[in-house]
């Protein structure tokens, strides 16, 4: 330990040294290069990487196109916005990313969170992108990533489940082409579906379900190969693997072709995506004022519309991205700060190019990984492919049936629902299962942001209750004819446990039949104790001594001695150290304990 | 433990038994008698108690009269309200009280909290009394007293200090008889004093300071006696003790007499209390509507005026009363629930008799204790004395100079400021000192309620941070030529520590020069672990095993086995039990550990 080291420099020197170290870190080329990882990987780029990065880029790009259009649809934005959000974040991420696998772009959950603002004006989407980027960048620069520790696994899982349910329910409208609004929450979407169920259109429904079934079958249809197979079979298997990976694009292409052919024959049985404005976006800062219901909102008023719930977007963006990065990092450690800088930069930059908030996408990251990407260059290739599509193919996208996109979204959503955590929490921690359920229910009924807030609040209450009722391990035994009670105080005894600890100690010592005990507090693993707890414990100890019990405080950290002796100087005589209880218990008790009479 | 007992009844039986026990408790005469303690002490009342209870009642009553008038003045209410608040709560408390010493009545802090509502309309005072009683009663009935555990000692002390400063500063106006408002906060009161310093009136100032000096001198002027003294000296000493205890009444009486004599000579140099409406209060429910600025406020709007800050009154009332009860209980245990029922009933009942919120008063309780009270009958005698005063002497109270009352309040306030806690926190816990300071500063500058809220919030953050960074005790040693690392996991590992614990374990195991370790997690004192922590720890352990380390989890509670094996079934093989490390470390490692290859 530092504090026991006689060579430890004085505090002034230490502070100076620490400041110098920070300065060196800030100015050093190496630490700047670590913050811009492309300067590390690009100079070492090899030609053999190119092929694999390109294949991965194309595969992911073919999924990014339909998903981009679909997620823009979820947010209620023009389809090209979803594509722009795959392009520009993808390019920026290739520069700042420290994780080769993660693919950045619009995600269904962020789109769902954005929808209620876009319902007022699409301008909110571009501003949301900038603000999201700004908040994430701030968190990254100020090293506030530890705040995410306070969102527990059950809350994240519950939130994801609620989001998947809400997004799927909102797709029922497109899948069945029913009338009415898609709804802000799971409940309202389901209610809308039920009230408008008579307006179901058979052809859209048929196409939607056909898309879902094809996607589900393709997802599971791997051709197994063994080393004894001939070359032809291996080639077929590998080709099929690429087909499977591009299944989203394929389903979209087939239904697009179908819709186009029927259109040429004068039939339009499906609701189509409609005109997509192709070409490059309008570059420029996001709008800082907007018009809602003929009223001009200033920047301050737009911020007011986002409110505190608006913070859900940057929060969810980081949670998604870091969770994904960790899932694919294997045994590499993920640099959360760098990831925040990268995602923040992506959103900040792309808000200048008509993009919606973007973050790491689970499905596309998994695809990227499976396609064998080697460097973040894959992300850049993907962006280029989407850029080509939006400039050259925008007119063809007119014919993409909405029911197919709804099918793609629903299949993607089912895959992110993870129910194994429910089974695990059921067997191991019912209270955490309640947190999960609360997050899901509030998320589904009130809104996704409120689900996170409710879950995090209940988690905080759980933690507060458990710190107010710390476990004091208690043992009863006899040494040298003394009746001993050993109580172990461990960890940090927080202020809220003051009443409980003192009451516990009294009850254990005074409720036993023997009238005189030796009570030993083992404080070897006690790291910190708040003032109120020390004060109440001292009162209890003095009380025990009045009842003629002998009290020892064993192996208390010398740093904590002062706290107790300040409250009651005589407690000094109860402090004992040593490796075993026998070492001090044999001695005459007067040497250690003190009987206080009033 | 119950769960290991083969005779343990089935769950259904247990629930039934517990319900029956609750029913018996609710219906049993004994438990009802415990809730109405007068049914216990009154039948055993002895004549010899009467004299001592009567003396105590008179002594406390003589202080209650000037303090009641003074505290009504702090709240901005007519003087008789302060007296009524000593009478009716005192009578009700005698019925429900389990602590003989505590004296209930208006207190300076509650009056200060009430002042801003009374500034709108005095009707708020009576409604506040009813609501305060209702909230406290609910907390008592619902056994929610543990909520008070979350207000730490430093916050209570900081709040008391801020309240004493604010109340003293607000008295500067009366002490110096300056112009302007007394101010809602310490800062505004001091600013008002400085801006109006030219309006200081010399006679009031002189009388005020004279009162303060006399009170301070009397407080310290005990006549010491020794067993060898003659009877005369002992009698003088005892009589003087009664005089000292009635010093507040005495000072008021002398200045009242002075003001009256000067008035008879045509001089009115002092600002006087003015007309006090004597006699009994108007009995009836508190007003549920009121008129503020010619606008009628409904009950809902009155509740709106109290808002969430209004909850500070019941909170402070309980905190004061329970803290006082504990301070004078000696080694008796205070029944917090009973105390809440008593204080709740006092306020609820007295709100029907034009009273302001009341709670245990520190100065008068100390006086009651020092006067040798034997039963809560003392409280009833005090109430009767004040009742006599308000019916017979109300007209005389006209001449009490305000500067004298201000002096009495300031002396009382100085005595409740306790600065020893600052010294103790300075040496033992700087972060708690910051909480204390924050509570004082916010309390003085923004408002007392906000001081408590700020302090409690920072305490909660401190606790959250410490539960996110639990201490893992680490030891390195060699057994049978194995390099061992022992890590002790203790207490409850809460969800927020998930990242930290896993990172800590990895860094300790992987950053050491030796390449292969035996890593032992001592979980004997681990009581609970949240799902996220278990999951991350499991991932870290599997990673350590990949790096060819051998991992043991030692003495893990069997209840927690399932949590780990659910996440990774192979972890089952790392669980070991036994009294010493040697018992399992000598065995071939394959028997316990597992090397997982992917």
TrEMBL record, chains A, B:
InterPro entries: SLC26A/SulP_dom (IPR011547), SLC26A/SulP_fam (IPR001902), STAS_dom_sf (IPR036513). Keywords: Membrane, Transmembrane, Transmembrane helix. Residues 50-439 form the SLC26A/SulP transporter domain. It is found in: Membrane. It is a multi-pass membrane protein. It comes from the Eukaryota. GO terms for cellular component: membrane. It holds the Pfam family Sulfate_transp. Gene3D superfamilies: STAS domain. The keyword Manganese does not apply. One of its GO terms (biological process) is transmembrane transport. The keyword Transmembrane helix applies. The chain crosses the membrane at residues 102-119, 125-148, 200-218, 239-263, 299-319, 380-400, 406-426, 433-453. This is SLC26A/SulP transporter domain-containing protein. It comes from Leptidea sinapis.
């Amino acid at each position: 330990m530092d504090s026991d080291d006689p060579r430890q420099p004085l505090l002034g020197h230490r502070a100076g040294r620490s400041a110098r170290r920070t300065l060196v870190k800030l100015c050093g080329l190496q630490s700047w290069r670590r913050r811009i990882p492309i300067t590390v990987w690009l100079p070492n780029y090899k030609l053999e990487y190119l092929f694999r990065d390109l294949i991965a880029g194309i595969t992911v790009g073919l999924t990014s196109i339909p998903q981009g259009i679909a997620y823009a649809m979820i947010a209620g934005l023009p389809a090209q916005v979803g594509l722009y959000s795959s392009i520009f974040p993808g390019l920026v991420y290739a520069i700042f990313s420290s994780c080769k696998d993660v693919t950045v772009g619009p995600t269904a959950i962020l789109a769902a969170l954005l929808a209620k603002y876009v319902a007022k004006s699409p301008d909110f989407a571009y501003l949301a992108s900038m603000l999201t980027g700004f908040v994430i960048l701030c968190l990254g620069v100020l090293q506030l990533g530890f705040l995410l520790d306070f969102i527990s696994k059950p809350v994240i899982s519950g939130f994801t489940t609620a989001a998947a349910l809400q997004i799927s329910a909102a797709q029922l409208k497109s899948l069945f082409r029913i009338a009415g609004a898609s709804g802000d929450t799971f409940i309202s979407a389901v209610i809308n579906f039920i009230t408008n169920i008579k307006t179901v259109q058979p052809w859209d429904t048929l196409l939607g379900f056909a898309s879902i079934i094809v996607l589900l079958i393709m997802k599971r249809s791997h051709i197994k190969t063994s080393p004894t197979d001939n070359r032809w079979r291996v080639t077929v298997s590998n080709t099929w693997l690429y087909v499977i990976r591009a299944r989203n694009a394929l389903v979209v292409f087939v239904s697009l072709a179908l819709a186009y052919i029927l259109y040429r024959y004068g039939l339009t049985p499906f609701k189509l995506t409609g005109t997509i404005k192709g070409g490059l976006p309008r570059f420029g800062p996001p709008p800082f004022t907007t018009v809602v219901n003929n009223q001009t909102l200033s920047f301050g008023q737009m911020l007011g519309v986002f409110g505190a719930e608006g913070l859900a977007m940057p929060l969810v963006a980081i949670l998604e991205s870091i969770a994904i990065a960790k899932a694919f990092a294997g045994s590499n450690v993920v640099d959360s700060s760098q990831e925040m800088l990268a995602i923040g930069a992506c959103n900040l930059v792309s808000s200048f190019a008509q993009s919606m908030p973007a973050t790491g996408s689970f499905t596309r990251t998994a695809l990227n990984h499976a396609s064998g990407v080697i460097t973040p260059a894959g992300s850049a290739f993907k962006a280029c492919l989407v850029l080509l599509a939006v400039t050259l193919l925008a007119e063809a996208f007119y014919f993409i049936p909405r029911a197919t996109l709804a099918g793609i979204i629903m299949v993607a959503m089912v895959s992110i629902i993870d129910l194994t955590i429910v089974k695990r929490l059921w067997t191991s921690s019912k209270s955490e299962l309640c947190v999960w359920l609360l997050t899901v229910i509030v998320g589904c009924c009130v809104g996704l942001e409120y689900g996170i807030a409710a879950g995090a609040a209940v988690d905080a209450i759980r933690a507060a209750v458990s710190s107010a009722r710390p476990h004091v391990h208690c043992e009863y035994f006899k040494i040298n004819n003394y009746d001993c009670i050993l109580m172990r105080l461990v960890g940090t005894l927080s202020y809220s446990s003051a009443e409980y600890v003192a009451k516990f100690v009294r009850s254990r010592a005074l409720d036993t039949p023997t009238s005189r005990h030796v009570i030993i507090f083992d404080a070897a693993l006690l790291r910190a104790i708040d003032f109120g707890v020390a004060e109440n414990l001292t009162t209890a100890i003095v009380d025990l001594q009045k009842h003629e019990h002998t009290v020892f405080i064993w192996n208390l950290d010398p740093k904590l001695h002062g706290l107790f002796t300040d409250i009651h100087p005589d407690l000094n005589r109860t402090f004992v150290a040593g490796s075993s209880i026998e070492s001090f218990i044999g001695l005459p008790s007067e040497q250690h304990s003190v009987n206080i009479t009033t």
